[in-house]
Amino acid sequence: MMNDLDWLLDLVALGTVADLAPLVGENRVLVKRGLRQMRQTTRQGLFSLAGVSELSVPKITAMDIGFRLGPRLNASGRLKEALASFELLTTTDVFKAGELAQQLEMQNRERQRITRDMQTRAEEIATSQDKDSHLLFAVDESFNSGVIGLAASRLTEKYYRPAVVASKGEEETRGSCRSIPEFHITDALDQCADLLVRHGGHAAAAGFTVKNENLAELVLRLKSVAEEKLSGTELKPTLTADAEVSLSEIRPELYEKCLRYLEPTGYGNREPSFVARNVKVKNSRTVGAEGKHLKLSLEDEKGLTHDAIGFRLGDWHKNIPARVDILFTYELNEFNGRVSYQLNLKDLKKS
What we know:
Strand order of the largest sheet: 1-2-3-5-4
Distance between the termini: 54 Å
Shape: globular
Radius of gyration: 22 Å
Strand content: 15-25%
Number of domains: 3
Order of helices and strands: HHHHHHEHEEHEEHEHEEEEE
Low-confidence stretches: none
CATH class of the largest domain: Mainly Beta
Number of strands: 11
């Protein structure tokens, strides 16, 4: 029996996951019920958005929202205004829904291009100032304020340091911050509150606005706070596995009988991860823009082949070892209407 408000739960799931709310407690319950509602939705906009995202609506997962639907919905607001996304989710016109979905797809591709260019420029600025700084800071008048957070995230991932990317206007500068578990970025901004027009966030991400006359002092003070907090700390990311397995133990039945019942997984409720050692590499290639992602065919002890994808691990392709130790999650993958199981590589090293 459907509650009067159940028809809105697909939107609740969409917003909760896309906004990176932790998938624990009531959030997890709402997203789980929302996904069930989404898989039987009649919203034309969701069908069209799933279409350009190469997804099947009855099989959408929280991961699909986070990595495929969410970025497309957010693209319009990042580049211009979010009206197109709102209209997509509310229209009952199938033709308008298709046009809006295509518009968001094009805006998302433009957003990806801008983010890549901005990341390159932000990295140049941040590392040229002080390569060994405990906090990276990049500010430029050309930066698009809608995607500075994405560029900051990439810097934090690459250098494992708190990072700030800021867009400088005529009178004020808007900044977006991303951080690591060892450094509470909003606490750091609190210590600089006298310099800021406004700020807010949480431990891992924050934003602020500062008058341009206070910008230089803010950079110095944030770097000083980071130096004090992180000095003597080994700044290396730590990945934790839930179990060490033989690759031959990773089979579709494991997903169907166990892993899928842990859904929805995502921020705050990560997927189970595994380590397998001395795995044979049969084939290696790069995929994606500029070959940033790594695609492997791996052979287990019984001679069976497993497909694996490593996002932003493309640099490994040039010197991939014959045998590797891998840390991965196991997932259901749908692409171009084809459903398969694959390893999602989080890290690897030579055996």
